[in-house]
Write a structure and sequence with these properties.
By secondary structure, the chain is α+β, with helices and mostly antiparallel strands. It has 17 helices and 10 strands. It has 2 domains: 318 residues, no CATH class; 88 residues, no CATH class. α2 packs across α13 and α4 packs across α5.
């Protein structure tokens, strides 16, 4: 590698860091056994599974989600030996199990690369592997298939139930159904089995009210796990008369009530602890948990943990808006789920890079994953144009061991920080204008509206604007004898 290429690499630290992480996580030696275990009726012929992964990676990282641009360039440089139509066909038939395994099997490798925990958990709950659980529908499906062209309205791709580890921020697994209108309940056992296979316990699951019934808590509590679930009024709660309710305040001074009792009735009921947080400016937050000991697991910690569940909502938003899940390459359920799996993977890669950029002065919560990904994408495009595939292989050379890779990531990212990646401060709520009026005719010009606003100013403001500004008196020149000025 010449001096020019070395200088280009030095100026593109994000690109090298992302390429090294992806090369470690998605090496051919790793992807081949993943395909063998989960390919089902799928097969490899001209387009292997590693090649398909490479094509989708290029589409999402370099071409803003355009599969056609990725496939065309791959044909030009020889990466794709089959036709573009064949590439779309391969994507169209990826088994759901293979898509789920792509995320579940890569997560442990990324966990090995994390330099330190990225989220602060309540003290009493730090012994648990805390995991948020939620469902997501894949939207924005393009109507390219013949059966879709004749319908109006939105159509959905696959349905997912995903799990995020709150301690690290990584997506650790998901299960999928080809029917985007399917419910969450049927997908829960599969994602629980996935996560339990890669994250040893004890685990503590955090879920929204959609999982509050008499079935899901039992599933979450299996294998020695525990749960915190938002209470749903569809399930009755019966207080235990032998245990009086307790009252207290959280860190923000809001009142909460702590009760012990049962969800449901009869033989099928569940013994739980219910905590109700009163919020003067909104709906009360009510959660139930099987962590019965209020001394060991204070109510304040349980409530603080539930608030961290919003992290999975932000993750869903990021994979949709930042990592191109809004622009779907394929239209079949299988294609949408595979792209979602890769978006989860890209999200995890950014979580790892962000962890290396975090310091005491800039904690990870203050680093914008969206802004960081924009620069990663920009640098990767520059890398491919300036350095190219042949020199990339020379730069990456032999795969690094995990300790060596961690040292290299630290070298690359420690001095790469720019204030451009810091999150913007939270916006203040906008001022509401209840006296808004519809424009006559539905439109008007900015110029006329500004003129009307000036004419409508209070009379006092008009008078003060029209009042002449007092001028300083000019200094009189001294008068000499005889009346003439000097």
């Amino acid at each position: 590698m010449g001096d020019f290429e070395r200088e280009a690499c030095r100026r593109l630290p994000l690109a090298e860091a992302a390429l090294r992480v992806l090369d470690y996580v998605l090496s051919d030696d790793f992807l081949a056994p993943v395909f063998e275990r989960h390919h089902g009726a799928s097969y490899e012929k001209v387009i292997s599974f590693p090649v398909l992964v490479q094509l989708i990676a290029a589409a999402l990282l370099e071409h803003h989600g355009s599969g056609h641009q990725s496939f065309t360039r791959a044909r030009e440089n020889g990466t794709l030996e089959a036709s573009i139509t064949a590439a779309y066909g391969k994507l169209r038939r990826v088994p759901l199990a293979l898509s789920c395994a792509l995320l579940a099997d890569t997560t442990p490798r990324l966990l090995d690369l994390l330099p330190a925990p990225t989220a602060s958990l309540p003290p009493s709950l730090r012994a648990f592997v805390t995991l948020a659980l939620d469902g997501k529908k894949i939207k924005h499906v393009a109507k390219r298939l013949k059966a879709l062209r004749r319908v109006k309205g939105h159509v959905l791709g696959g349905k997912l139930v995903a799990a995020q580890e709150l301690h690290s921020g990584l997506a650790v697994g998901f299960s999928a159904d080809p029917d985007g209108e399917a419910g969450d309940a049927a997908l829960v056992p599969a994602v629980l089995a996935q996560v339990r296979a890669v994250r040893p316990g004890p685990r503590l699951w955090v879920a929204d009210r959609g999982f509050c019934d008499l079935v899901q808590p039992r599933r979450l509590a299996a294998d020695g796990d525990h749960y915190v679930i938002r209470f749903h009024a569809k399930v009755s709660f019966t207080p235990d008369p032998q245990r009086p309710a307790q009252h207290g305040q959280d860190a923000e001074g809001r009142s909460f009530t702590e009760e012990w009792g049962w969800l449901g009735r009869g033989k099928n009921r569940l013994e739980v602890r219910r905590i109700t947080l009163a919020r003067p400016d909104g709906e009360a937050v009510i959660v139930v948990t099987d962590l019965q000991d209020g001394q060991t697991y204070p109510a304040e910690d349980i409530l603080a943990l539930y608030l961290l569940r919003w992290g999975i909502e932000h993750m869903f938003q990021d994979i949709t808006e930042v990592f191109s899940l809004r622009r779907l390459i394929g239209s079949t359920p299988e294609a949408t789920v595979f792209q979602a799996a890769f978006c989860f993977l890209l999200y995890n890669v950014i979580v790892v890079l962000r962890a290396y950029l975090a310091t005491a002065a800039r904690p990870v919560e203050q680093i914008s994953g969206e802004k960081l990904f924009e620069d990663v994408e920009r640098q990767l495009v520059a890398w491919q144009e300036v350095i190219g595939p042949a020199q990339t292989a020379a730069v990456l050379d032999a795969p690094l061991t995990v300790p060596a890779l961690k040292r290299r990531l630290k070298e690359l990212l420690t001095s790469a920080w720019t204030e451009r990646w810091r999150k913007a401060p939270a916006k203040k709520p906008g001022v509401k204008h209840p006296d808004k009026e519809y424009l006559k005719g539905g439109h008007n010009s900015v110029y006329r509206l500004l003129q009307e606003a000036r004419l409508a100013e209070p009379a006092t403001a008009q008078r003060s604007a029209a009042k002449p500004t007092p001028q300083k008196s000019k200094r009189q020149k001294p008068v000499a004898a005889g009346g003439k000025r000097c």
